[in-house]
Amino acid sequence: LPDGRRELVGMTHAELLAEMVAIGEKPFRAKQLWHWIYHQGARDFAAMNSIAKPMQAKLAERFVVGRPEVATEQTSTDGTRKWLFRFRDAQQVETVYIPEDDRGALCISTQVGCTLSCSFCHTGTQKLVRNLGVAEIVGQFMAARDSYGEWPTPKGGSGDDDGRRLSNIVVMGMGEPLYNYENIRDALIIIMDHEGIALSRRRITLSTSGVVPVMDLCGQELGVNLAVSLHAVRDDLRDELVPLNRKYPIAELLAACRRYPGASNARRITFEYVMLKGINDSVAEAQELTRLLRGIPAKVNLIPFNPWPGSKYETSTHASIQAFADVLSRAGYSSPVRRPRGRDILAACGQLKTETERARRG
Ligand code: SAH
Ligand code: SF4
After folding, report:
1. Is 20:30 a contact under the CB 8 Å cutoff?
2. What letter does residue 216 receive in the DSSP assignment?
3. Which atom belonging to ligand 2 lies closest to the Cα atom of 207?
4. pLDDT digits over 137-192, tens only?
5. How many A from CA of 115 to the centre of ligand 2?
6. This prediction's pTM
């Protein structure tokens, strides 16, 4: 911070401990602060009533417990909520909450923009790109919890995880998480920590366009659920839709899926497949897909293409999506068609892009 105070959110256990030792405090302080920050959701040292007043003051002189600034918050008629968060350098990202009956998933961003420029994705057209820091990633979840009043227990809820509306995280917002791996790793380790937010790795799904070498690390170090943006069954087409395919072609990508630890019938790998009219949506391609996925515990998420201003594709027809899904389900793959959510607030997959960028480009 400009005033020399340091942000505590985003520090690992070890870093927080080092900070306490540096100001002459006992190690138990780190544990105490962790509980206040990540279990209770406290933002103000004065609210940390297990800490003596003079100590609270000492901490407040040196540290802050921050949140990203909420630039805008919109709630769709279907309950989807979208935030535009602004960081200290004025860069912004979007975060979306997708409700599902008594629970729901928070879709978090990992980069401002994305360097990968998939041809159907709005985020990939954004010019400014930088990685988000650990605090900026964890902060999206913490700010969403603030917004729903779910610290330390859900309002009127039972106190266990199931009572929370923010029950799951999908790392599917702006950016390619595996191009910002160390920060997303540290952020998820904080979010999964048992003494804090304590979200189980089974409730977290990370989506990648296929950064093969980092997929292995992700499996070993985090063991979260994996989603892979496949979108095509032939390399020539995937090269065009997902340019990263030129580096890590389909065969290598699927080999990485085959060796992903923890994948089983109970924990399948999700393959995302955006349905583009006349491009990748034929029955022959569905058949080829079932052949490619053989031997992988997989399910396929069919995502009707979400158009954005200036996009060059059209959404597949309902009938062709149905025919595609039928081929998959006859081969034994669960193949839900993802309903677009939050259409009225441009919150659907691939539509995320900051307002300032939209305005600048007209
Ligand atoms: N970079 C990661 C995660 C963010 S994108 C990845 O690509 O997997 C999240 C999902 O939205 C991906 O499957 C992506 O291919 C999909 N997507 C992007 N643009 C879309 C659009 N316009 N319509 C539908 N899905 C889209
Ligand atoms: Fe980046 Fe994912 Fe969009 Fe591709 S689909 S440009 S990897 S955010």
Report:
1. yes
2. H
3. 2
4. 999 999 999 999 999 876 655 545 557 899 999 999 999 999 999 999 999 999 99
5. 8
6. 0.94
